[in-house]
Amino acid sequence: MQPVVQRLRTGKGAWNRKVSGAFFCFENLIGLDRCSMNSSVATLKNPQTLIVIGNGMVGHHCVEQLVERGALAQYKIHVFSEEPLRAYDRVHLSEYFTGRDAESLALSGVELYQQPGLTLHLGVPVLEIDRQRAEVITADGCFSFDKLVLATGSYPFVPPIEGAEGESRLVYRTLADLDTIQVAATNARRGVVVGGGLLGLEAANALKSLGLEAHVVEFAPRLMPVQLDDHGGLALKAQIEALGVSVHLSCATQSISAGDEYRYRMNFTGDEFLETDLVVFSAGIRPQDALARQCGLELGPRGGVAIDSQCRSSDPQIFAIGECAAWNGSVFGLVAPGYQMARAVAAQLCGEDSTPFMGADMSTKLKLLGVDVGSIGDAHGATAGSRSYRFIDEATASYRRLVVSPDGKHAIGAVLVGDNSYYDALLQYVQNGIKLPTDPACLILPQGEGAPALGADALPDTATICSCHNVSKAAVCAAIDDGCADLAGVKTCTKAGTGCGGCAALLKQVFEHELTARGVVVDKSLCEHFAYTRQELYSIVRVEGIESFDELLSKYGKGHLGCDICKPAVGSVLASCWNRSITDPLLVPLQDTNDTFMANMQKNGTYSVVPRIPGGEVTPDGLIAIGAVAKKYDLYTKITGGQRIDLFGAQLHQLPDIWSELIAAGFETGHAYGKSLRTVKSCVGSNWCRYGVQDSVGMALVLEDRYKGLRSPHKIKFAVSGCTRECAEAQSKDVGVIATENGWNLYVSGNGGMRPRHAELFATDLDDATLIRYIDRFLMFYIRTADRLQRTSVWRESLEGGLDYLKAVIIDDSLGLASELEAQMQLVVDRYECEWANALNDPEKLKRFRTFVNDKRSDPDIHFVKERQQRRPVRDTELSLIPLFEEVI
Amino acid sequence: MSRVEAKVQQGQGWQSLCSRQDLVANSGVVAWVDGIQVALFYLPGEPGDKQLYAVDNRDPKSGANVIGRGIVGSLSGNLVIAAPLYKQHFRLDDGTCLEYPEQSLRTWPVRLHGETVEIAMG
């Protein structure tokens, strides 16, 4: 806005005169480009105004690309969204019913849309486009544009069926639709999805997650008729039915009437019927082209805004991208082609060269109801003269088909049901025209029978690794050459693997292969003394019952001393396994200095002391006792983020005295120095709060009491909130517990700190005993499998199989470990003792707490100054200001 | 001739510091010697003349007197002490820093005479 005003004031004299009377009004309005001001503003426009209609996945990607390419220097961007929510991940919509909320499905943080020059109008549908005046008309008024991008997406097609209305005519497209389905599902027993395609099966999964008996009704004689052939459809049907979803093929619904046993009866041709409590239609999509029709843009033969390969509509100022656009008469209902269009348009708008959109590969890889399904290229073998190889395994209902060119030299299509591990290699063969091996069948035969693995080295540089973000193998290599040393770095730098995530395994392969090719050996040794990872050492310690560092080193290590990497790591493992006191003479030399002296060393060599205040609950007497100690030893006193009190500035020899007094007042050690449970933060809960539904403080006390002293690969933080308002911020903790009307929701693997991560909902409505059982298992599984100094968040992200795998291990006991994990935790709990109380009872252990072994004095080099009525370490620059005669502590 | 004996022969006198009981095996303690803070490390598993080390307690990087509270270890055959604040390593036998050659710790000859720990400050 500033430059415009500048021009007004200093530029053309005529303008000055013309606007001066209404200057403030003008200044206010210019930000929004209201068309009421259009006539006077038009010639002043700089920057131009770009309007994007639609904030779905593709519209959002376009905005993201525009911002990344610096479009905000040229354009003021307004984004209009009919939905009240920021763009979210529609591909994973059914996870809304298994724990993900709208915010976690959101595609970006809110910051993207808070940049100056970019305005997101949520819940503001565009009602009309006036091409003559270059304006869009919304409920909030009209807005003029220089360029317009239509990204209005699609809407679900509902065939006209007599009697379909209300809960017998639900659709599955938006989060609002899901809310409606959820309401309809209350008190329902059975739900039917009409449509056995990709979205229909997703919808069936959603119904299943809601606890309904799910049925799929498909008009065609097989499931997923577009992507699969007959055999594939059969295999998928068998697998889905095994999961408890009934499939009805070749069924055309004629009408819906009132049911006898259920709310509705669906009547099919030929007197057959099926009763149900709700019906979700997912029989295909139609491009949302209403605005284009209204303003007279050219449309495709089957609907959709007709676009050229630059994604331009028949009006050169208007672009269309995603499912609302028809290129060459076809609408592309996948996210990758939509992203391709979004990139093409963003590049053009920023004056860059763009890759023309020339159609898209509709190959796709999905997990539907937990069943792998893949479809590549000419899956049906429609190419004249093509031949197929097929592998059918009726025992496990797996099916694979490879379609090859008439000359048999190249793969042109494939179908997979049951096992997508073949997908990446097959896709590369098809997309990059890689010559087939002599026996192409080996590509789809069960692995382990000598199939030549298509290694990352066989891929040409042009091979697309991530199709969502169009990242080639060459781009991944370039990122590595530019210094990306880990996979996370490559992802950040290239965006590969951050779209649908389907290429994750391939990306990892390419990354590791390229690293090896560059001579980088990925050495997983803990240090020069142990050629094992922390996980491996943990197993050895456990299985062989090893209780000392020396024993482990002599049997499995090199040398006889260890170092500052392996000693604390092994010390922590020994403590996690056996929970012997860390003040044990054999264990003392292993600990990091903070564990050795059971306090946190600060920059000047003094310590801070943190008594445990479980759940943040403290009596006035307790508070006074802490205050008295702090006052007596002149300790700098600060409240921590974990709802307790940190006392700074104690010298080594003062620690035993300070702790005797704290223990006498009823406190115990807070383990602030350990890689162990720190605090269980809590809100005040139902005892006091008018909103609380459970006693969060009570639960926090139980949890803190149970897990205090537990040694782990890194520190662990908990929180318990008494209601969904979440005042304890449990979703940023390693273990978060939030009260519900019926019990507790458990969240895991959250983190604040350098790389914040929201905890994920792990289980809902747990009773106290189950909650504790799950936390026992979760923590012990983490301790068992995490790397050294790996927080639960990073550990969770490194788990292959992700949250589902973790749930399987912890909740379903898929590894048969649950009782062992619980028993291990119980051992640790039973052996708990306050380390400070233990040390104070043993003069031998106290002898280490001497500043000098041969002299009673304090460290004369420690100086403090007063600031804000408390002392702090003196800075180097202040040292000369200290009078020489000042008495030191 | 051992390292210690060599230095002593150059005319340094031994003075007693503390007893073996004051030491902590495989770890460090600190002694006050005429205004100098000396960190003592005791490695009973090493050969006789390599069991005891005396180095400066002052960490040159932080300026704090904390070396005696670091972790003893071995790296590439060198016995080292890891400074507890910033984790840089110093060789116990000559005080050189593995990561920052410009930093180093003073070292002194030290020995066990019966149950008495003796140091030669020179």
TrEMBL record, chain A:
Organism placement in taxonomy: Bacteria, Pseudomonadati, Pseudomonadota, Gammaproteobacteria, Pseudomonadales
Coiled-coil ranges from the UniProt annotation: none
Cofactor descriptive note: Binds 1 [4Fe-4S] cluster per subunit. Binds 1 siroheme per subunit.
Binding sites annotated in the UniProt record for siroheme: C727
Classification via Gene3D superfamilies: 3.30.390.30, BFD-like [2Fe-2S]-binding domain, FAD/NAD(P)-binding domain, Sulfite Reductase Hemoprotein, domain 1
Species of origin: Pseudomonas segetis
Homology family: Belongs to the nitrite and sulfite reductase 4Fe-4S domain family.
Entry protein name: Assimilatory nitrite reductase (NAD(P)H) large subunit
Domain Nitrite/Sulfite reductase ferredoxin-like: 602-664
The BFD-like [2Fe-2S]-binding domain, residue ranges: 465-512
One of the GO biological process terms: nitrate assimilation
TrEMBL record, chain B:
InterPro entries reported for this sequence: NirD (IPR017881), Rieske-like_NirD (IPR012748), Rieske_2Fe-2S (IPR017941), Rieske_2Fe-2S_sf (IPR036922)
Domain of life: Bacteria
GO molecular-function terms, A-Z: 2 iron, 2 sulfur cluster binding; metal ion binding; nitrite reductase [NAD(P)H] activity
GO BP terms: nitrate assimilation
The keyword Oxidoreductase appears for this protein: yes
UniProt keyword annotations, A-Z: 2Fe-2S, Iron, Iron-sulfur, Metal-binding, Nitrate assimilation, Oxidoreductase
Domain Rieske: 15-119
Name the UniProt record assigns to this protein: Nitrite reductase (NADH) small subunit
Organism for this UniProt entry: Pseudomonas segetis
